[in-house]
Write a sequence for this structure.
């Protein structure tokens, strides 16, 4: 067992977990934050994407112990009360159907927008499609996810 | 159209929980003292199970039980069954081999479960599963259906000689042969339909709980049809009687057909919960999903189509071999027969069609319905051979289609289906216009300057949804009726709950179904709640697949609403002392038409429940149920146009334009319908260009993860142009046709037709990966060089 | 994943000591390959020694033409380094094309080359650049470092600390991704040194992992242009065939990617 402590969605989280506990297992099974999903076992589907110290990572491919001292944000902590503009954009643009990939998509999208904004780069449709390489959706054909991220980026810029 | 009524782009009511991470999927649920199951699976494609040594696994920390197939069958748990009986041409029944949830003496595909471990943690269960020692006697295996039919092939089931499940035919063979013999032109093709893994993003999961005091079971499971699951688990697998089994399918993360079936794991978890007196949970890893979720497609066909001198089709003859895998899955027999050969007439007026289908056992995962189920296979065959014939005959492919379209309705095809309505030329015109078909040669020339090969391809698809009239499918061998049920409950304060047997796993029923009720009763959509997915709440239902929730599920709701409206009017007429015929329901009121005399909607509700002043003899309350049995299939149809550019250096294909013109009849929510089409096309692109299940000769699954099975990603796809040109279905009250599968049905042939147009060949198998396209280009250029 | 003991190293010495004390220890860098392998029970180290707490192992330094990249520098950090983008743009392109954004936030250059996956991108880059791999014990030339499929010249317990190389006069990388995994089905890195010598390395295609292509090097040394590639015969011998494509197609990709790499340089 390893003692770990980190900040999850602004709240201190401390636990003793088996050393082989993945970050996603810690979030889902220990903290019961079940919005972060597991859709594959080869680090490709992106359903498990969360932010660790402000950067999108695949929580299925990181040990919980490696996140010691980190600031972790999950879909449940993306907004405080009001919906995050990207969440609003996913709803308004019908960027989700079954909803399973959606938390990972939204966490990837907000990370993407933050990076492009920081670098002053244009988040074109082509760039969005490329940036979504690590997030698989089986329902939407991505058409409306791309629209949602474009809209979400605009909403984030103006909020 | 009201703001939230039929035809409005209403944002989805269900979205909030999904975008905030509050969806409740099966794996999110954890019962008290939850235990976890892991399955011991065969590493061999075909082997005898000689013995199972559970001692090491049983002794491991945290292990509660190690259970095997002999215990399972010993407890009277029945074999898995196929629920649709299809007979051979000679009248003999299908050869269904025994399939136990845990194999007892023989395994027939890699992944076939032989034992299960129940442990305190998932890690302990998985580790112990590896410690179960199974002594296998390896047997020769066969993975391709064509090979399985050969003499001397390894035999999978004793009661299926030659691995043949049935040899079935539809249509008039002699007449078709005669028509083809007299044809002015005949095109012949060998057409493969590649094997696919459905891959809903949520892996399958099941949590079984057993209440010893009540002798009652509860199963949470990733199902598209919880009632059907309960029926089959009870009636055929003898897990528990129906009144002692509650099945709940909570939020389900996509299905695409693969979550219709009741799998061994659900059966085993229920049984293990009873054995261990603990709740047992199992969630598939993606690797397990590839190994055990029913696959789709896998047809090998030869087809001949004949035309007269006026380019009219005189006959179509098809011979298909369908791979059903190691065992017959629940609907497996219907998919390559009644859901396939019945659509071989396409959108065309063809007098003579004959189709022979042989279904075959192989040492692979069972094959069953996957988005489209039979109809994509039919559409691909018809639209590929039409395109090829047009090229051979030097006719514009659009015009060859137009000449042969069915133009008057109803139209009886020679393969069972009676098309009730459509405007095929209207969809074709709309698609060609939107795609600027006429401007293609200029675009091709421009692309050539950039070194790209540009091609355009069409597909005019038709499919059959709203499955189906119960008597009709019963006469064709279905083991169940395919109606749907609904119950509309008006509460005393006027809010409404609608219970439906349809199941939403991405389709947005909580919104579209509420729209229909809001439209009918002119009430705020917020006042309407859709309830589904729980056998304790909804009495019965047949679930969601085959694009049936609209045409069948909503029709049941409409029928229940008819009864509600009638009762409401009776109550209001009594209270207001007017005739029912003078009453209209609008704007939250039941009012006397043309006057301001009215009862507020909630007042009627309250009157029904207080029962202080009801018409003589009327029962209190306001709750009506209905069962709706469709009168016909519905026939969504349309034309898709795909335009591609191929990079001759690598064979990479880019879809530069994809246009859809669909006829779905009435559209409740265009936003949701477009989303269904987008997703369907994406899966079609996956089939046409990316996805392929590959087994090696020994039956090992090589495409066993996302490292080797190419799922469509955002950068593989273009944005889509979606148009509608609709004719209302006469077969249900709202005129709906269904929209869930069309995209996956119409897109593969349009894409392959476009690529073959670009590279100048007719033969090209799916998936048209860059290496395959590049190789085809090398062959084509070698041929040109030789000429 | 099997049981294991997790350790966080505070220094290189600490990491080496912890690894030495473990019965079957492994270093954990970004974990983007190792953790999935362990999840599939294909690797089962008794102990993992996490290197991410060692501060001086990450960062990119460009001093004059000398480039030094700390072993724990993430792909995202390499891809986004402005100085490196000037000195050796193709390496930033290469790093920016590994995996996906979330993987690039975790995966490291040291982890990638220590794994030496035959379809990984970095081995091609470092081999073509003639880079030096620095460890806690020694400096190893890239030509000696990559020794075959998933194998390197690293000794048991040896730890990569940094990678350094002389920025070339020109370089380019072109990758044809596997449509499923997005690893390189074939990737070609071409670099022309200040002395005019050209090194061309190919990943994703060789049956024995990353390799240099003599024919392409000769042709491009004589004439550094995309069209110089046209006359080179690329044999399919020794190339991989798998369910995704055969060796002949990979041979074609080597030429095509070489052309594109030079054109991009």
């Amino acid at each position: 067992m390893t003692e770990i402590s980190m900040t999850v969605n602004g709240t201190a989280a401390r636990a003793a977990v088996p050393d082989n506990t993945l970050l996603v297992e810690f979030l889902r099974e220990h903290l019961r934050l079940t919005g972060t999903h597991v859709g594959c076992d080869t680090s490709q589907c992106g359903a498990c994407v969360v932010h660790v110290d402000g950067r999108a990572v695949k929580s299925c491919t990181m040990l919980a112990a490696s996140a010691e001292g980190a600031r972790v944000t999950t879909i449940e902590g993306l907004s405080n009360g009001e919906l995050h503009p990207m969440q609003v954009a996913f709803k308004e643009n019908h960027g989700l159907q079954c909803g399973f990939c959606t938390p990972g998509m939204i966490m990837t999208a907000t990370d993407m927008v933050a990076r492009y904004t920081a670098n002053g780069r244009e988040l074109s449709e082509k760039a969005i499609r490329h940036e979504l390489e690590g997030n698989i959706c089986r329902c939407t054909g991505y058409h409306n996810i791309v629209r949602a991220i474009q809209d979400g980026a605009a909403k984030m810029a103006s909020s | 159209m009201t703001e939230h009524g039929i035809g409005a782009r209403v944002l989805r009511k269900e979205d909030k929980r999904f975008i905030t991470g509050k969806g409740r999927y099966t794996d999110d649920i954890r019962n008290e003292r939850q235990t976890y199951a892991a399955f011991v699976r065969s590493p061999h494609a075909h082997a005898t199970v000689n013995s199972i040594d559970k001692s090491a696994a049983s002794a491991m920390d945290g292990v509660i039980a190690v259970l095997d197939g002999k215990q399972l069958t010993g407890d009277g748990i029945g074999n898995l069954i196929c629920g649709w009986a299809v007979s051979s041409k000679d009248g003999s029944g299908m050869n269904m081999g025994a399939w136990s949830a845990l194999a007892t003496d023989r395994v027939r595909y890699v992944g076939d479960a032989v034992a299960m471990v129940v442990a305190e943690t998932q890690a302990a269960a998985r580790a112990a599963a590896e410690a179960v020692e199974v002594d296998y006697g390896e047997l020769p295996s066969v993975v391709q259906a064509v090979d399985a039919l050969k003499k001397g092939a390894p035999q999978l089931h004793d009661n299926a000689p030659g691995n043949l499940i049935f040899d079935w035919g539809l249509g008039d063979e002699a007449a078709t042969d005669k028509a083809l013999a007299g044809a002015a032109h005949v095109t012949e093709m060998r057409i493969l339909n590649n094997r696919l893994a459905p891959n809903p993003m949520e892996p399958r999961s099941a949590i079984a709980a057993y209440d010893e005091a009540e002798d009652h079971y509860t199963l949470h499971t990733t199902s598209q049809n919880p009632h059907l699951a309960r029926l089959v688990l009870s009636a055929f697998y003898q897990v528990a009687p129906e009144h002692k089994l509650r099945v709940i399918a909570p939020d389900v993360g996509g299905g695409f057909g693969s979550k219709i079936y009741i799998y061994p794991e659900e059966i085993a978890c229920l049984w293990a919960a009873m054995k261990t007196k603990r709740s047992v949970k199992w969630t598939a890893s993606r690797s397990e999903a590839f190994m055990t979720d029913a696959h789709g497609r896998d047809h090998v066909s030869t087809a001949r189509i004949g035309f007269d001198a006026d380019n009219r089709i005189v006959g179509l003859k098809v011979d298909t071999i369908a791979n059903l895998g190691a065992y017959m899955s629940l609907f497996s027999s219907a998919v390559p027969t009644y859901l396939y050969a019945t659509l071989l007439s396409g959108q065309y007026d063809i007098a003579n069609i004959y189709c022979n289908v042989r279904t075959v056992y192989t040492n692979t995962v069972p094959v069953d319905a996957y988005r489209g189920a039979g109809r994509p296979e039919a559409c691909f065959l018809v639209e590929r051979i039409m395109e090829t014939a047009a090229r051979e005959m030097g006719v514009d492919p659009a015009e060859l289609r137009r000449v042969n379209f069915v133009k008057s309705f109803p139209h009886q095809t020679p393969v069972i289906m009676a098309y009730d309505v459509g405007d095929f030329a209207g969809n074709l015109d709309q698609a060609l216009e939107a795609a600027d078909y006429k401007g293609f040669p200029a675009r091709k020339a421009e692309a050539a300057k950039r070194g790209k090969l540009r091609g355009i391809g069409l597909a005019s698809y038709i499919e059959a949804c709203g499955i189906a009239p119960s008597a009709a499918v019963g006469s064709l061998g279905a083991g169940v009726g395919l109606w749907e049920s609904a119950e509309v409950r008006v509460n005393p304060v006027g809010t409404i709950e609608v219970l439906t047997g349809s199941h939403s796993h991405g389709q947005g029923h909580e919104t579209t179904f509420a729209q229909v009720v809001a439209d009918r009763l002119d009430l705020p959509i917020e006042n309407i709640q859709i309830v589904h997915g729980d056998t304790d709440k909804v009495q019965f239902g047949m679930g969601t697949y085959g694009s049936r929730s609209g045409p069948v599920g909503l029709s049941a709701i409409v029928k229940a609403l008819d009864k509600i409206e009638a009762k409401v009017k009776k109550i209001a007429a009594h209270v207001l002392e007017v005739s029912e015929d003078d009453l209209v329901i609008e704007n939250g009121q039941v009012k006397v038409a043309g006057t301001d005399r009215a009862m507020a909607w909630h007042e009627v509700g309250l009157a029904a429940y207080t029962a202080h002043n009801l018409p003589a003899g009327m029962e209190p309350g306001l709750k009506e149920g209905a069962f709706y049995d469709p009168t016909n299939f519905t026939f969504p149809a349309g034309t898709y146009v795909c335009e591609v550019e191929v990079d001759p250096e690598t064979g990479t294909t880019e879809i530069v334009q994809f246009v859809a013109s669909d006829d779905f009849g009435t559209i409740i929510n265009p936003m949701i319908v477009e989303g269904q089409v987008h997703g369907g096309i994406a899966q079609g692109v996956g089939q046409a260009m990316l996805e392929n299940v590959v087994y090696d000769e020994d039956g090992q699954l090589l495409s066993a993860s996302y490292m080797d099975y190419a799922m469509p990603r955002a950068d593989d796809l273009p944005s889509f142009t979606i148009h509608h040109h609709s004719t209302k279905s006469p077969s249900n009250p709202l005129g709906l046709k269904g929209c869930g599968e069309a995209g996956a049905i119409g897109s593969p042939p349009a894409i392959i037709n476009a690529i073959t147009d670009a590279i100048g060949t007719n033969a090209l198998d799916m998936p048209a990966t860059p290496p395959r396209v590049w190789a085809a280009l090398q062959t084509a250029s070698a041929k040109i060089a030789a000429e | 994943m099997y049981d294991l003991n997790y350790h966080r190293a505070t220094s290189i010495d600490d990491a080496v000591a912890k690894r030495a004390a473990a019965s079957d220890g492994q270093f954990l860098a970004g974990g983007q390959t190792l953790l999935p392998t362990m999840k599939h029970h294909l690797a089962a180290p008794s102990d993992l020694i996490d290197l991410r707490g060692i501060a001086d192992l990450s960062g990119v330094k460009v001093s004059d033409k000398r480039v030094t990249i700390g072993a724990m520098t993430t792909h995202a950090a390499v891809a986004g380094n402005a100085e490196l983008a000037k000195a050796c743009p193709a390496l930033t392109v290469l790093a920016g094309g590994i995996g996906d954004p979330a993987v690039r936030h975790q995966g490291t250059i040291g982890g990638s080359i220590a794994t030496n996956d035959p379809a990984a991108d970095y081995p091609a880059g470092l081999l073509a650049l003639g880079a030096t791999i620095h460890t806690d014990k020694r400096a190893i030339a890239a030509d000696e470092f990559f020794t075959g499929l998933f194998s390197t010249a690293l000794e048991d317990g040896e730890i990569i600390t940094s990678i350094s190389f002389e920025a070339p006069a020109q370089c380019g990388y072109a990758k044809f991704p596997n449509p499923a995994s997005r690893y390189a089905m074939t990737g070609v890195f071409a670099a022309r040194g200040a002395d005019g010598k050209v090194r061309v390395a190919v990943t994703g295609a060789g049956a024995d992992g990353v390799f240099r292509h003599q024919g392409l090097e000769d042709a491009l040394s004589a004439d550094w242009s995309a069209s110089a590639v046209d006359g080179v015969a690329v044999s399919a011998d020794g190339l991989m065939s798998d369910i995704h494509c055969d060796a002949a197609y990979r041979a074609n990709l080597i030429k095509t990617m070489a052309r594109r790499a030079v054109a991009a340089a």
